[in-house]
Amino acid sequence: MSIYAKVEKGPAIEVFALTQAFKDDSNQNKVNLSVGAYRTDAGVPWVLPVVRKTEIAIASDESVNHEYLPVTGLDPFTSAATELVLGADSIAIKENRAFGVQTISGTGALRVAAEFLHTQLNRNEVFYSNPTWENHHKIFSDTGFTSLHSYRYWDQSKRQLDFNGMLADLDQAPPGAVIILHACAHNPTGIDPTQEQWKQIADLMEHKKLFPLFDSAYQGFASGDPDRDAWAVRYFVSRGFELLTCQSFAKNFGLYCERAGNLTVVQQHASTKAAVHSQLTLIIRGMYSNPPAYGARIVSAVLNNPALRQEWMDCIKQMSSRIREMRSLLRDKLVALGTPGNWDHIVNQIGMFSYTGLNENQVRYLIKEHHIYLLKTGRINMCGLNTGNIEYVAKAIHAAVT
Ligand code: PLP
């Protein structure tokens, strides 16, 4: 008998299974609202023009070669990424208390962060929002965390943030627990705390000595302004927290498959940097030795050149504005159809996703009867909507609800 015979088949990963089902569906009206990637109004992926231009420049640069990057990545990339999230005038950068290491996109940043927290800081307790991006649980559990908890976040009946529930649950967390916070554009709900609420979260976390781990997968993509989207992280740094931030350049640069990410470490004192950096180096060395260069070269070239950076800023404005337009259009169409319920949450949410409030039965109906693919939680990717399919989707939602 094969030694592999005892391996049990694992469950399908919902988002990838839905995308496959969408591909296999021959219905001409089919719509994919499941996968977390940007689509243009024509329903196709978008290579940002500034990214294309930079790729061409890199490809024709004879001095570029394919030598290994250092274990912690490309320095001009990590410094630009760290500055993007903490701000050019960050006191932590000025005092040499902050630095970044390149990672395999946002997921890799989270995995390296989890490994560091577990093995170097002996953390075993992590809290993530309910709901959250489903990989948070897996990453921390695969790392060896055995005490994994969720804190309340979404109030399904009111379709808004359950702020009191969130504070009450965080208040129960033991000192030192790692708290995963979405820096902006919370996935999957699209609901972020207000600045006033972030201040209260910071008060509680400071008082209870909780450790903030910011997951920043949508900076700039949410509001169109990277500074505004980084407000919460910068606020925590200004309060003197030591923290980690996991950055992805998948969405805001459209570099999904290129795996460009950065883990930013903010410390109280510059004196701990050498030791922390060395341990992160060893963690990465043992996991995948060194990161890929392609995406990091593009991000670095763009962020470190004022003219290219401006072009990038224009691109993220364009993407976030299209999403906002789709939000208003969908809400307006549902209201015009007289679809039961209040649909204002669709325009009040921010970022790529909307947590529609549709239940599992309604989701099943949309997939089966209308070939509209979305997660069973009712999360839709707003970018999957466009002027060509929004009427069809609104009518289908109407039919699902009535
Ligand atoms: N964190 C959140 C909240 C996300 O939504 C995602 C991607 O969907 C990621 C992290 C990581 O993405 P990636 O590894 O593609 O950068």
Automatic annotation (TrEMBL):
Its cofactor is pyridoxal 5'-phosphate. It catalyses: L-aspartate + 2-oxoglutarate = oxaloacetate + L-glutamate; 3-sulfino-L-alanine + 2-oxoglutarate = 3-sulfinopyruvate + L-glutamate; (2S)-2-aminobutanoate + 2-oxoglutarate = 2-oxobutanoate + L-glutamate; L-cysteine + 2-oxoglutarate = 2-oxo-3-sulfanylpropanoate + L-glutamate. GO terms for molecular function: L-aspartate:2-oxoglutarate aminotransferase activity; L-cysteine transaminase activity; pyridoxal phosphate binding. Residues 29-397 form the Aminotransferase class I/classII large domain. Keywords: Aminotransferase, Cytoplasm, Pyridoxal phosphate, Transferase. It is found in: Cytoplasm. Signal peptide: none annotated. Its EC number is 2.6.1.1, 2.6.1.3. Gene3D superfamilies: Aspartate Aminotransferase, domain 1, Type I PLP-dependent aspartate aminotransferase-like (Major domain). One of its GO terms (cellular component) is cytosol. Coiled coil: none annotated. GO terms for biological process: aspartate biosynthetic process. It comes from the Eukaryota. Pfam families: Aminotran_1_2 (PF00155). Belongs to the class-I pyridoxal-phosphate-dependent aminotransferase family. PANTHER family: ASPARTATE AMINOTRANSFERASE (PTHR11879), GLUTAMATE OXALOACETATE TRANSAMINASE 1, ISOFORM B (PTHR11879:SF55). Homodimer. This is Aspartate aminotransferase, cytoplasmic. It comes from Drosophila persimilis. The gene is Dper\GL10236.
